Amino acid sequence: MTGQIDDDVLNRGEVYSLVASDGEPLFEPEAHGFRPVSSSTACWRGYVCHYAIVKDAFVLDRLEINHADGTEDAPVPAIPPLLNGRRASKPRRKYAFFEHEYKRLGMGISFTGRLLLGAGFIEDLYVHAGFQSAWKYRRIREVAIDEGRITSVDARTKEMSMVRGHILGRRQLEQDAVILKWVERYFSVDAPI
User: Fold this and answer.
1) DSSP codes, 41-78
2) pLDDT at 193
3) pLDDT tens, 176-190?
4) Where do the domains of the chain lie?
5) What distance in Å separates the CA atoms of residue 34 and residue 82, rounded to the nearest whole number?
6) Is 147 helix (H, G, I), strand (E, B) or coil?
7) Confidence (pTM)
């Protein structure tokens, strides 16, 4: 499987990859009348979400998607539905993976749970398969959300650095109870290792 394009989250002017989530629901295209189809092995889902943290709200800011009617074997291009009152536009990029794009949505997402956001991907750790793991990023933020409202944003770079060292066989996890508790919580999340 090819490495996949990940969703991202804009937080305080910095774009983070959404590398793990524990909770629901994030944006589900089918619930809004879409039928996503892949046009590249880099995005089997057929869509990418660009979320943002705006003040204390978690929103879908932009959506890139391929939408089709018909069967999986014979998709027929279709006019995508309105999303948050907006029509889709055609991406202006020369080499776009997606046929449709929704911009400046500001659409509240009533997600409840935790997200791990990563920035500063370490290229030497890239694996050409699926989504990349949280421990492969230099900076990690843990965002707690309750029905679309941000309740906390905490730096978790130190903890994830320790996890990375442990996975790469460079160090044992320290016996710091706070760090061990966070690591245990992280590994209880359905996240790729």
Assistant:
1) TT-TTSEEEEEEEETTEEEEEEEEE-BEEE-SSSEEE-
2) 40
3) 555 556 556 655 544
4) 26-108, 113-188
5) 10
6) coil
7) 0.82
